[in-house]
């Protein structure tokens, strides 16, 4: 064992002064999706964040017990935010019981976060199949090999299941879309844009969906 863990790191002493550049109501796009597109482009092309499409997806089961995990955003437009997963996974089972979901984009190096609250629905099979075809061969096999979120006896068992699939569908051979795998589209109801500011006086602007389909913007106290 090395002593690489010996340096005391006290999280209470970690304090960053966030940037002064703020977010004003007049800066905002007409819809939260358009505003998201703007910040997402800045995260990717100006701040060069590693995987800016990585988001924390929080679900709750029928009893209200929450759980969170990181998932990659694979598409977004005015209809919502799309990710792909195993329909037998814990998150998917939660969403079948309770479609309310929260998505959080933690863009820490820019002192920004975006938090989406909404309702998740499965994407259509055609849309799922179209995306599945764009995945690398190995990821396609991985989607078949894993019964996500279930207990697996050993790593050996997982590797053996992948090897079997690899023998059945060698590189170049078309892999069918697993019936237990697909997308969710999260239709936003609220989207908060958080910009860190000096002295903890952060900007928090939240779009809220109105019954007529328009958006209201409100400022939240930091
Ligand atoms: C950076 C990153 C990206 C991930 N992307 C996905 C994804 O797109 N889809 C997915 O099902 N799991 C993804 N995972 C794995 C999930 O975090 C999680 O382990 C898995 O989906 C099972 O979650 P559940 O048991 O809560 O349903 C990702 C993990 C990380 C760290």
From TrEMBL:
Signal peptide: none annotated. Pathway: Cofactor metabolism; pyridoxal 5'-phosphate salvage; pyridoxal 5'-phosphate from pyridoxine 5'-phosphate: step 1/1; Cofactor metabolism; pyridoxal 5'-phosphate salvage; pyridoxal 5'-phosphate from pyridoxamine 5'-phosphate: step 1/1. The keyword Transport does not apply. Residues 181-222 form the Pyridoxine 5'-phosphate oxidase dimerisation C-terminal domain. Residues 46-165 form the Pyridoxamine 5'-phosphate oxidase N-terminal domain. Pfam families: PNP_phzG_C, PNPOx_N. The keyword Oxidoreductase applies. Catalyzes the oxidation of either pyridoxine 5'-phosphate (PNP) or pyridoxamine 5'-phosphate (PMP) into pyridoxal 5'-phosphate (PLP). Belongs to the pyridoxamine 5'-phosphate oxidase family. This is Pyridoxine/pyridoxamine 5'-phosphate oxidase. It comes from Streptomyces gilvifuscus. The lineage of its organism: Bacteria, Bacillati, Actinomycetota, Actinomycetes, Kitasatosporales. The gene is pdxH.
């Amino acid at each position: 064992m090395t002593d690489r863990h010996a340096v005391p790191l006290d999280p209470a002493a970690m304090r960053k002064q966030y940037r002064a550049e703020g977010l004003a109501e007049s800066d905002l796009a007409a819809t939260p999706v358009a505003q998201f597109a703007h910040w997402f482009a800045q995260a990717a092309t100006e701040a060069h964040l590693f995987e800016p499409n990585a988001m924390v997806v929080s679900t709750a089961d029928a009893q209200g017990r929450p759980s969170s995990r990181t998932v990659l955003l694979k598409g977004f437009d005015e209809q919502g935010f799309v990710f792909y997963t195993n329909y037998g996974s814990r998150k998917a089972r939660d969403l079948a019981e309770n479609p309310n979901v929260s998505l959080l984009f933690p863009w820490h190096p820019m002192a920004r976060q975006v938090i989406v609250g909404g309702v998740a629905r499965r994407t259509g099979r055609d849309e799922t199949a179209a995306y599945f075809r764009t995945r690398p061969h190995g990821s396609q096999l991985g989607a078949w090999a894993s019964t996500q979120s279930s207990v697996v006896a050993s790593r050996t068992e997982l590797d053996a299941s992948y090897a079997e699939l690899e023998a059945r569908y060698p590189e170049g051979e078309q892999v069918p879309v697993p019936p237990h795998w697909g997308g969710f589209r999260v239709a936003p109801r609220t989207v908060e844009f958080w910009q860190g500011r000096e002295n903890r006086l952060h900007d928090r602007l939240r779009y809220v969906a109105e019954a007529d389909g328009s958006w209201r913007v409100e400022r939240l106290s930091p």
